[in-house]
């Protein structure tokens, strides 16, 4: 008899959270701490969503999305999780760039970027100051017509090298392009520039374990291997979910699943008005990623002068198209030293590139496997430029593709950062369409990434609290739900 992953689950909860990405986890924890009964349903056998890891024989543990986040994570983790989690966040001090236009090392904060722009790039100090002030002053209510490209042209006209320095890491960090609204860039860039790039010491596995313990302490009913098939709606209000063949009632549902999958697959287009449906259909998914995971033999070391993060490119100019191309010219390497994973003597390298789902989706299984092997081999060749002895030191290497991300998180087209900017307005408008239904998860660049997703979870938890306070008590049993 198959295991019942819902054994002991109640008939009804105040709130059901679908998905345990950082937004779902944080929303669930915040709601339970405020006294609500919360059921968290995750389809995978692990919590974390994109914030995840995997193990391979030989003691290797690979992090998928632990490459860097802004200092704001310390405050958010302290406030919404625990002091222990917040205290494990440490700075990555050596961020490197190497491309045909320049090579440099930076602490990736405003002070150091100002120095570099003035001394190395010879930009007038006034322009640098004005640019940083403009980026920091941006907020969501600003003019959304100005693009990132226009913003750069205003302060650094004709300076392709400066644009590359300022844009390449942010494109890597959230897939944004020169055509996106400038505020999506300004907010994310300023978040990083305030103090630099940070990581979680001990790895994603430790973080998610600590978060799981907090959820249990807060009273969240946490369930893995629970794939929600349907969000149930009656008379314009959410009534519960259908999961693993059961219907469970709730006064509010928070979906942490992909925005478009939530609207069109889990709820169904019929429950939304025409204008909303059109807006939701027009939302563009963000691009996906490929990664190559490389583990060194026990005891083999990486020279720490390699840095923590290396933005490497052989493309003569910075072009979004080139970043997405299957003909890879740009790679971001994360170097993990044993100190980042205390207790292990292993050194690891993860190479990440932005990628298109369509370049991988139509392949036969033989071509798909061959393409993955090619990705591993070409990445090892490219890495040899920085770690010449990589092939002799290597113990294990494998690749993931957009299909891998889709498989494990159910994000449509394996989108790494949810949707493009326009997804945010659609995500926020869902409760006006279906009472008690909310979405919290990667949308609109600002609300994605570890910090963005976590903070969005808190914002939505507050919305749910207000809704529950003003809405009528529990809806009647779901037997009559359509
Ligand atoms: C390769 C890569 C590198 C990245 N690097 C960084 C980085 O360095 N720094 C950074 O800040 N961010 C990074 N990110 C982005 C960051 O990881 C994500 O933006 C963030 O973790 C997303 O959180 P989320 O809450 O939106 O949910 P997700 O992580 O997208 O999780 C959604 C969850 O919902 C579950 N789910 C979906 N459908 C259902 C269903 N029907 N029933 C039950 N459960 C369901 C999924 O299984 C998943 O667990 C990276 C992402 C990728 C892919």
State the distance separating the first and last CA atoms.
Answer: 29 Å
User: Which architecture of the largest domain would the CATH scheme give at its second level?
Assistant: 3-Layer(bba) Sandwich
Q: What is the fold-level CATH name, i.e. the topology of the largest domain?
A: FAD/NAD(P)-binding domain
Strand content: 15-25%
The description of the largest β-sheet is:
7 strands, mixed
Rounded radius of gyration (Å): 23 Å
- What is the arithmetic mean of pLDDT? 93
Main CATH class of the largest domain: Alpha Beta
In total, how many domains does the architecture comprise? 3
Query: What low-confidence regions span 5 or more consecutive residues with pLDDT below 50?
Result: 475-482
Helix fraction, binned, reads 40-55%
At the fourth CATH level, what is the homologous superfamily of the largest domain?
A: FAD/NAD(P)-binding domain
| Alpha-beta content class | alpha/beta
Number of helices: 18
Number of strands: 18
Shape: globular
Are any ligands bound, and if so which? Answer: flavin-adenine dinucleotide
């Amino acid at each position: 008899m198959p295991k019942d992953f819902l054994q002991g689950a109640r008939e009804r909860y105040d709130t059901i959270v679908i998905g345990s990405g950082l937004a779902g986890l944080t929303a669930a924890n915040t709601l339970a701490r405020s006294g609500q009964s919360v059921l968290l349903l995750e389809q995978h056998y692990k919590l974390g969503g994109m914030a995840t890891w995997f193990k391979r024989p030989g003691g290797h543990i690979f992090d998928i999305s632990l490459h860097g986040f802004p200092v704001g994570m310390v405050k958010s983790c302290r406030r919404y999780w625990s002091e222990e989690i917040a205290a494990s966040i440490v700075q990555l001090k050596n961020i490197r760039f190497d491309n045909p236009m320049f090579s440099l090392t930076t602490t990736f904060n405003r002070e150091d970027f100002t120095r570099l722009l003035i001394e190395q790039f010879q930009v007038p100090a006034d322009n640098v100051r004005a640019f940083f002030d403009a980026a920091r002053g941006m907020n969501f209510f600003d003019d959304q017509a100005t693009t990132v490209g226009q913003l750069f042209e205003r302060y650094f006209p004709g300076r392709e090298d400066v644009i590359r320095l300022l844009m390449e890491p942010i494109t890597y960090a959230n897939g944004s392009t020169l055509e996106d609204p400038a505020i999506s860039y300004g907010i994310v860039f300023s978040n990083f520039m305030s103090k630099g790039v940070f990581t979680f010491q001990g790895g994603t596995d430790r973080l998610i374990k600590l978060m799981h313990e907090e959820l249990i302490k807060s009273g969240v009913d946490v369930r893995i291997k629970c794939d929600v098939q349907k969000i149930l709606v009656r008379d314009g209000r959410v009534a519960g979910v259908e999961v693993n063949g059961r219907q469970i009632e709730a006064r509010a549902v928070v979906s942490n699943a992909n925005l478009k999958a939530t609207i069109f697959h889990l709820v169904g287009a019929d429950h939304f008005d025409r204008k909303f449906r059109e807006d939701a259909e027009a939302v563009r998914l963000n691009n996906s990623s490929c990664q190559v995971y490389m583990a060194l033999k026990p005891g083999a070391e990486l020279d720490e002068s390699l840095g923590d993060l290396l933005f490497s490119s052989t493309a003569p100019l910075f072009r979004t198209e080139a970043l997405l191309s299957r003909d890879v010219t740009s790679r971001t390497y994360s170097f993990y030293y044993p100190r980042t994973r205390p207790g292990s003597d292993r050194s690891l390298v993860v190479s990440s590139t932005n990628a298109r789902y369509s370049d991988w989706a139509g392949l036969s299984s033989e071509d798909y496997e061959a393409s993955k092997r090619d990705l591993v081999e070409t990445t090892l060749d490219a890495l040899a430029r920085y770690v010449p002895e990589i092939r002799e030191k290597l113990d294990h290497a494998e690749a993931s593709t957009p299909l891998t991300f889709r498989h494990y998180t159910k994000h449509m087209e394996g989108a790494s950062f949810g949707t493009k900017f326009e997804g945010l307005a659609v995500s926020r408008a869902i409760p006006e369409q279906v009472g008690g239904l909310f979405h919290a998860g990667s949308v609109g660049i600002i609300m994605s990434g570890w910090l963005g997703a976590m903070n969005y979870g808190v914002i939505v938890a507050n919305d749910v609290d207000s809704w529950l306070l003003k809405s009528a008590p529990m809806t009647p049993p779901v037997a009559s739900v359509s």
